Amino acid sequence: MDQVHIPVMINEVVEYLRPEKDKIYVDATIGAGGHSEALLNLGARVIGIEQDREILELTRQRLERFGDRVIFVNDNFKRLPQILEEHNIIEVAGILYDLGLSTFQIDSERGFSFQRDCPLDMRMDGNLELTAKNLVNEYHENELSRIIRDYGEERWARGIARSIVRNRPLDTTFHLVEAIRRGIPRGARYPKIHYATRTFQAIRIAVNDELEVLDASLSTAISKLTEGGRIVVISFHSLEDRITKWSFLQEAKEERLRIITRKPIIPQESEIRSNPASRSAKLRAAERICQNYLSPE
Ligand SMILES: C[S@@+](CC[C@H](N)C(=O)[O-])C[C@H]1O[C@@H](n2cnc3c(N)ncnc32)[C@H](O)[C@@H]1O
Questions:
Q1: Is 67 domain-assigned?
Q2: Residue 296 scores a pLDDT above 80
Q3: Quick check: helix, strand or coil at residue 26?
Q4: Which of 69, 73, 247, 292 could form a disulfide with 218 if both were Cys (CB 3.0 to 4.6 A apart)?
Q5: Are residues 151 and 164 in the same domain?
Q6: What CA–CA distance (Å, rounded) separates 119 from 173?
Q7: Category of 37 on φ-ψ map: left (φ > 0), alpha (ψ -120 to 50) or beta
Q8: Ligand 1 pocket, Cβ-based, cut-off 6 angstroms
């Protein structure tokens, strides 16, 4: 790996997940394996799921020294229950989701970054059919506008969608950046972020179906936790955080979960200084409670 991904809020992950020797934990987004490595160092066993085959192969080599205490699975975390079943595992002591992209992907030639001129791809899993290029060149203007508004929370979604359609065909990230620029009124302000940030985020979310997958995955994952088992989710934008918050609240209402972090935990100043990529991270944690109590007759 050119630059290894720096795991975000690693101390907090250990604090909330409370890994124990020989217990099984799922790292639903193993990426470069930084969090898993911390769990393995504490004696835990890990099932590491990753939809990006390239990263997973590198991580498999990097964590080789842990032998059969770690199992690598090239799959989407939406299949977590089936994955556990395939490995004859009924329940696990903890599950971690560290959402979004790894540094490896941002630095790749797959068009995730608006700062590098690359083909428009944006697939985390190379087997997915839809690429960013198909999406920007083939989708109807109204659908593009909806995606940019809903997944990017972009104020100028309609103008950007119109400009994308007018400037077709778009082959590279820089073509897309230029189309975005032309779709934004002159003088529009983007304090702190680049004007292409939100649209790139929106297209990436749509290509990888990220929000639907997360929403569907969380409650099934929680059902696989043993009593007292913990789930920790680190998200990087408000849409993911909202899904996590509501999913936890719903499970708490149905007395399957106890929420540990009433408000999301954010990185310490010192972490943000040494790893600016952590600045938008939010961590939420919850604990599985027993639902099989006997109700009074
Ligand atoms: C922020 S990185 C994880 C970094 C990791 N915790 C570490 O310490 O290196 C997120 C990873 O999750 C993967 N990912 C995102 N959505 C996924 C999904 N639905 N199923 C499996 N992996 C996913 C991405 O490919 C990416 O490698």
A1: yes
A2: no
A3: strand
A4: 247
A5: yes
A6: 6
A7: alpha
A8: 5, 7, 29, 31-35, 49-52, 55, 76-77, 98, 100-102, 124, 213
pLDDT of residue 292: 55
pLDDT tens per residue, range 156-199: 999 999 999 999 999 999 999 999 999 999 988 888 899 999 99
Bond into 19 cis (ω within 30): no
Residues spanned by the domain of 90: 10-104+210-288
Q: Checking DSSP bridges between strand 70-74 and strand 92-98, what pairing results, if any?
A: unpaired
In a shared domain, residues 133 and 260: no
Mean pLDDT of the chain: 95
Q: What is the CATH number of the domain that holds 66?
A: 3.40.50.150
Whether the predicted pLDDT of 293 surpasses 70: no
How many domains are contained in the chain? 2
| Distance (Å) from CA 180 to ligand 1 centroid | 27
> Given ligand 1 and candidates 6, 11, 51, which is best to mutate, with the most ligand atoms within 8 Å of its CB?
51
Instruction: Please report whether residue 297 resides in a domain.
Output: no
Q: Whose CA is nearest to atom 13 of ligand 1?
A: 29
Answer yes or no: are the C-beta atoms of 108 and 123 closer than 8 Å: no
Residue 29 CA to ligand 1 centre (angstroms): 4
| Residue 4 is assigned to a structural domain of this protein | no
Question: Within this chain, do residues 199 and 234 fall inside the same structural domain, yes or no?
Answer: no
Q: Which atom of ligand 1 is nearest to the CA of 7?
A: 8
Pocket test for ligand 1, best of 10, 26, 50 (most atoms within 8 A of CB): 50
**CATH classification of the domain holding 156:** 1.10.150.170
How close is the Cα of 129 to the center of ligand 1, in Å? 19
Whether 64 and 180 share a structural domain: no
**15-69 pLDDT tens trace:** 999 999 999 999 999 999 999 999 999 999 999 999 999 999 999 999 999 999 9
Pick the atom of ligand 1 nearest to 124's CA. Answer: 25
Query: Cα–Cα–Cα angle for 233, 65, 45, nearest 5°?
Result: 40
Ligand 1 centroid to Cα of residue 297, in Å, is: 46
Which pLDDT does position 109 carry in this prediction?
A: 96
Q: What is the reported pLDDT for 1? A: 46
Q: Are residues 132 and 147 in the same domain?
A: yes
Residue 3's pLDDT is: 55
pTM: 0.95
Tell how far the Cα of 33 is from the centroid of ligand 1, in angstroms: 9
Residue 216 sits in the same domain as residue 100: yes
**Same-domain status, 160 and 215:** no
